[in-house]
Here is the input.
Amino acid sequence: MENGVIICIDDERVVLNGLQSQLGREFGSQYSIELTESGEEALSLIKDLRQTGHEIPIVISDQLMPGLKGHEVLKLIHQVSPSTYTVLLTGQSDFEAVTEAINHANLYRYISKPWEGNDLIMTIREALKGFYQEKQLEEQNRMLERHNKELELLVSERTYELQNEKAKSDELLLNILPEKTASELKENGEATPRYYKMVSVLFTDFQGFTQSASVISPLELIQTLNECFTAFDDIIGKHNLEKIKTIGDAYMCAGGIPTENTSNPVDAVTAALKINKWVKEWNAERSKRGLESWEIRIGVHTGELIAGVIGKKKFAYDVWGDAVNLASRMENSGEIGKVNISGTTYELVKHTFTSTYRGKITAKGKGEVDMYFIEE
Here is the structure.
């Protein structure tokens, strides 16, 4: 038995034999022609065929039969095999039965008895064509639905990946630039440098770094600097300061940018004291392990400056102005283990910290400048 089965239903054996003869000559090489003498027998056969994986493209049924009428059989067949095309043979114009079959049994056509052989063959051929076209369309729809689901999954996964990449990119950008500046840069493609009236700039520098660098390996040097600067990052982050950059062993940060505030002088001095304390404790631990100490100088100055991002490549947030130069001089003119501040900064923090006046100290390129040591 071939996979495709054409079923004929009629209570008259002679009619069944005629159908088998005509259909067999035309379609017998491709389809099995099965004969049943009642609707009940046909339903049982269909059940068995479906269980064994056979396709039933067409069922041809007589209308007037004992028991189940043709249109009733076709309605039941349609319930168990919805894709099967049905053809009704009727010896009289039973429009009500035909209408029922059209509406509820996927009726392809009804043919009056006695039928013309060519008419029957043409009807069955067209019905077979329709059956397999619909089957192909259903398969294409299933494939399309499967591909759509796969595409939706792929899009969802890619969207998730892109969101993660964007989050990483944003996080990286925020590690390079202040949040406000990064947002302006993303929105406008540029960030306009801004003037700030009061910013406290903090510089640190390790004494004798060049000599230390000559006696330890480059890897150990970088690891040691990274240990220090990571600690400095943590400290200034807790005191509302913005890291500007590192240059060799020098570390620079500032308070009051990019968001202006009036607390930056106290914030900067507090952070400077904590950095100094951390370095002393760190050196004590290094001494226990027989390692060389790295002594530090720290300077702070408060003044006006310009801050922002310039250029188109390798964006970096930076500051410009005389306040930057004076803060650098505070560090250069300081002493190991001391926080050296300018007279300007002193006036803004004198009610918060105890200071020792050093007098007017000559600062390179700046002449004599009032300087103070902050007492710990």
Q: What stands out?
A: The radius of gyration is 46 Å. The first strand starts at residue 4 and ends at 9. Residues 297 and 336 are 5 Å apart (CA to CA).
